[in-house]
Structure formats: C-alpha cells, structure tokens
Amino acid sequence: ETGVTQSPTHLIKTRGQQVTLRCSSQSGHNTVSWYQQALGQGPQFIFQYYREEENGRGNFPPRFSGLQFPNYSSELNVNALELDDSALYLCASSLGDRGLGEQFFGPGTRLTVL
Amino acid sequence: AQTVTQSQPEMSVQEAETVTLSCTYDTSESNYYLFWYKQPPSRQMILVIRQEAYKQQNATENRFSVNFQKAAKSFSLKISDSQLGDTAMYFCAFMTPRARQLTFGSGTQLTVLP
After folding, report:
1. Residue A97 scores a pLDDT above 80
2. Do B101 and A55 touch (CB under 8 A)?
C-alpha cells in the first residue's frame, strides 16, 4: 500500500509569484484535503476534493485554488504569493464522499516566500 | 463554528511515566469525531487515536487512551509508559460529517526525558 506523497519537499518563491504543489493520495482513497500550517500553529483547512470536485472550503481567498485528477492525485495552486503564505502545506487523503474517518497525511511541502 | 483548545503549549515527562494532554472543544453538533495526531520533527502527521462521539466507551490504542467527557466537551489523551519516540507535537482535532474538515488545536509539544 502506497502512502500519501507530496512534492516538492521545499520551495522558495518571491512575493507575487505563483506556485503549484502536488499530492498523490494513498492507494484506494478518493478524497484529498489540503491544510496550511504556519510555524508553531495547528493546520488550517484550505479545501477538499472528492472525485475531481471541490467538496468544502475553508477561510482562504480565491487565489488559493486546486485540482483533483482522475487518479485522485491533487494540486494546490497559489497565485500572487504573499509573505504570510510561508508555511508547511499538508495534503491528506481519505476514503468516502465526505472524508469521513481517518485522514492520512503526507510529509508536507515547506513553502518560503521572500 | 467549531473551536479546539489545547491549553498546554509544552509538557515534559520522564521515560516510562504517564502523561495526560488536555483538549477542549466547542460545538453545537451532536454527531462528530475527535482525533489526536502526533507530528514529530519529521513533520509527518500521524494519527494516534480516534473517538466517535456516539460511543460512550473511551478509545484505546496500546499505550494511548482517551478520556472523553461529552457533556464537558473534553477529550484528553493519556500516554502510558512514555518512550523517547513519543517526543513530538500533539494536536487534538475535531471533525463533523457536515463540515467535512479537520479543525485542529494549537498543539502541545511533548518532550520525553531519558
């Protein structure tokens, strides 16, 4: 069974740029959730995708967008990067149309915005 | 909106001893799930234990157990026979089927001392 993977591990961008983060869900899982974890804080929910459709969204601006592909992998895109976007971005996969039950996390992508 | 509060930013315990981490939450929902996640320095968020609100029996996973007090909206984690590998940030998290997202507390940094 393959676990959740994320790429890249680390990323450095400058303010105003755009970034794409990628996530491969655990084998058999059809739901992917994205979280932002600022330094020293708990993760904050960004959005969730189920079968290629957005299935819930947290309090994040529209410049945070996502995709889910037919193989259930997912991308998180952030446009017009701001300094406060610097954080660890976590992807979690789960089984079920509403992400019920356990969410299994990837190792995260550390984004630094200069 | 749901909130999760962890009032102990840092705790330490001697190896082989028992420690309890506190968590309280606020919700008007009657059906929900509670989780404890562990995040070691490697950043990988690992599920420790899960409790379903409709189950009165407290969940147990090997050395980890919870004290779930639904009326008090309290969900503490007890770690018995603490091991050096238990050193990590511990997050309490809440989810409802309707909200479809994990709401995390701010975390408790646990250090197990040799």
Report:
1. no
2. no
How would residue A99 be classed by pLDDT, with cut points 50, 70 and 90?
Answer: very low
Please give, rounded to a whole number of angstroms, the shortest distance from the CA of B47 to a CA of chain A.
7
Beta carbons of A56 and B107 less than 8 Å apart:
no
**Cα of A107 to nearest chain B Cα, Å:** 5
* Closest Cβ opposite residue A102 in set B4, B43, B50: B50
| B105: pLDDT strictly greater than 80 | yes
Listing DSSP states for chain B in one string gives: --EEE---SEEEEETTS-EEE--EEE-S-SS-EEEEEEE-TT---EEEEEEETT--SPPEETTEEEEEETTTTEEEEEE-S--GGG-EEEEEEEE-TTT-S-EE---EEEEEE-
- Among chain B residues, the shortest Cα distance to A88 is held by B43
pLDDT at B1: 77
Residues 6+ apart with CB under 8 A from B56: none
Residues of A with CB below 8 A from B105's CB? 42
B21 and chain A: CB distance < 8 Å anywhere? no
Percent of chain A surpassing pLDDT 90: 75
Degrees (nearest 5) of the Cα angle B107, B113, B114? 150
φ and ψ at A41, to 5 degrees? -125, 170
> pLDDT of B28-80, one tens digit each?
988 899 999 999 988 889 999 999 998 888 999 999 999 999 999 999 999 99
